[in-house]
Amino acid sequence: MSGPPTSDADxxxxxxxxVLDEDGSSFADFTEELDDFxxxxxxxxxxxPFENGRRYHAFKPGAYPLPNDDxxxxxxxxxxxxxxxxxxxxxxxxxxxxxxxxxxxxTGTGIWAMEMGDAHPEAEFLxxxxxxxxxxxxxxxxxFEVDDIESRWAFGAPFDFVFSRTLPCAVGDWPGLVSQAYxxxxxxxxxxxxxxxxxxxxxxxxxxxxSDTALWVHLLVGAARTAGKEPCPGPRLEQWVRDAGFAxxxxxxxxxxLGPWPRDARQKEIGLFNLVQAIDSLEAFSMRLFxxxxxxxxEEVQVxxxxxxxxxxxxxxxxxxxxxxxxxxRPTA
Length: 333
Ligand SMILES: C[S@@+](CC[C@H](N)C(=O)[O-])C[C@H]1O[C@@H](n2cnc3c(N)ncnc32)[C@H](O)[C@@H]1O
What we know:
Layout: H1 31-46, E1 50-51, E2 54-55, H2 70-86, E3 101-105, H3 111-119, E4 124-129, E5 142-146, E6 159-165, H4 174-183, E7 185-201, H5 212-226, H6 237-243, E8 247-257, H7 265-292, H8 298-313, E9 320-329
Parallel strand pairs: 3-4, 3-6, 4-5, 6-7
Antiparallel strand pairs: 1-2, 7-9, 8-9
S-adenosylmethionine (SAM) binds next to helix 2.
């Protein structure tokens, strides 16, 4: 029988007397040691700053303008269900086969990676994010780590599939990010980028460019770009993916109604999900950007958000925005 490759494999490991109970008869519980250890490694990345009543990420502070508190995590899960419904109950559209290693870039709550992990027990899923907000009870093939996706990627082995979803106002250098995905996916492997265009519109002229909603979107897009973060990556994904060198590139666009105004039952449900998340997104997107970039007071931000909230609930405007899905394959030669 072959043992582990250590020189003292046959000798017993000595027990630290401090882990024995007072009478020496049974082992103490390690809960305290585990708690101390995880607290010390996690404290710097989870010592979250609070601003204007919202909680933000602590690793690379200031890199991302949206909060990471429970209200925001609930919103991300609503967005997840909305997008899945819009894509025909699919989590991904790329036609990959035989995946073993998958990366979810900027994983958020990790819900995509966890559902994919359940659906593909043969593959390992890694999700990374600035915030360690993912649950600890996850499928055994799903792992999360804290990382800055705009830093140089340093993974031990390439992936079969790299996925990224809804990163508006998160990324400064999109061509750089897509190129890192290219370098970190195997030849023959796939990437998929799904992202938004935050500009709202209506097909029947019921969205007024002089509305408070249009003003909020205009200010937000400007503030995010001033801060160096692209708020509307969706329409530009295809070009970035082609420029990075991917082949077999496919671009699909989905209209997402904002409110339950469509007649079609599926679109109506998508619209309801979208309205719920949009109402919660107003302060999430604009509080930091408007106070720090536009130098508004928090109260001014709240007043505009309240006006937009009222407009969004108004049934007479048939607003929507576009969601873009782009996938491509790294050539084999
Ligand atoms: C809108 S959420 C989307 C989360 C997830 N992709 C999804 O679709 O459910 C954007 C996520 O990107 C993360 N993020 C933003 N900038 C990042 C960066 N530079 N490095 C890593 N994660 C980042 C945020 O912390 C947040 O969890």
